[in-house]
């Protein structure tokens, strides 16, 4: 959400009806990466779309077994990264049935702390994004926390690892733009938009599909072009959608 800030006295919440003080007010949008101006077209900024495959759904105890990062700019993919990770705990059968990653597949893979700097480097200088971002973000933040990751002195800033930076979430936009469609699952939304997803529930494939879905959804006039505006509108929609889900549960 945004809030109006009065540089003078702060007496009015908006300058719309007070033309004489409109020049004293400025809108502040929360959740932006400070490296990027709020009025820039967000498609001009590198977007790092993240997907994680895990041992379960609880980020506080479950662990990451695969990370995919796909970076886009101007609507095109410009970089892809993928890591298989040894979680240090057995992969439950329920999780393996989803992503088909077994204990044998990761037994010789590095632990998260060994490649944390590589993942941070892939995310650096980008707006973070993920489909159902709260899930992937929680796992990534917890893994970096366990790893005790400290950015290198010469490393680029990494907005994805800062708590005050919101992630772009294509799911929020799919729920709005495909409101009349029953399923908002990534595979179903991708199919409707003509985006290929051959290996669902593998990190790199899901991350790329989510990025391409984001760019296809962004062609809709309801998606603002300015970075600040798109994040402000996403926050508003997410709150409305959360209220709607609570209503239907009660």
Largest beta sheet: strand ordering: 5-4-3-6
Spell the H/E element sequence.
Answer: EEEEEHHHEHHHHH
Report strand %.
Answer: 15-25%
Distance between the termini: 26 Å
What is the SS-derived class?
Answer: alpha+beta
The total of beta strands comes to 6
Protein name: 3'-5' exonuclease
Keywords: Exonuclease, Hydrolase, Nuclease
GO molecular function: exonuclease activity
Domain Exonuclease: 46-223
What topology does this entry show?
Layout (H helix, E strand, L loop, with lengths): L1 E5 L18 E5 L17 E8 L9 E10 L2 E9 L8 H7 L3 H4 L5 H12 L3 E3 L3 H15 L22 H8 L8 H8 L9 H15 L9 H23 L1
Parallel strand pairs: 3-6
Antiparallel strand pairs: 1-2, 3-4, 4-5
GO molecular function: exonuclease activity
Keywords: Exonuclease, Hydrolase, Nuclease
Protein name: 3'-5' exonuclease
Task: Please describe what this structure looks like.
Keywords: Exonuclease, Hydrolase, Nuclease. Residues 46-223 form the Exonuclease domain. GO terms for molecular function: exonuclease activity. This is 3'-5' exonuclease. InterPro entries: Ribonucl_H, RNaseH-like_sf, RNaseH_sf. By secondary structure, the protein is an alpha+beta fold. The chain has two domains: 1-30, no CATH class; 41-249, Nucleotidyltransferase, domain 5. It is built from eight helices and six strands. The protein has helices spanning 93-99, 103-106, 112-123, 133-147, 170-177, 186-193, 203-217, 227-249; strands at 2-6, 25-29, 47-54, 64-73, 76-84, 127-129. It has a four-stranded mixed β-sheet with strand order 5-4-3-6, sandwiched between helices. A two-stranded antiparallel sheet has the order 1-2. A hairpin with a 2-residue loop joins strand 4 and strand 5 (76-84). The longest helix is centred in the last third of the chain and has 23 residues, at 227-249. The radius of gyration is 20 Å and the shape is globular. Mean pLDDT is 90; it is low at 1-18 and 21-25.
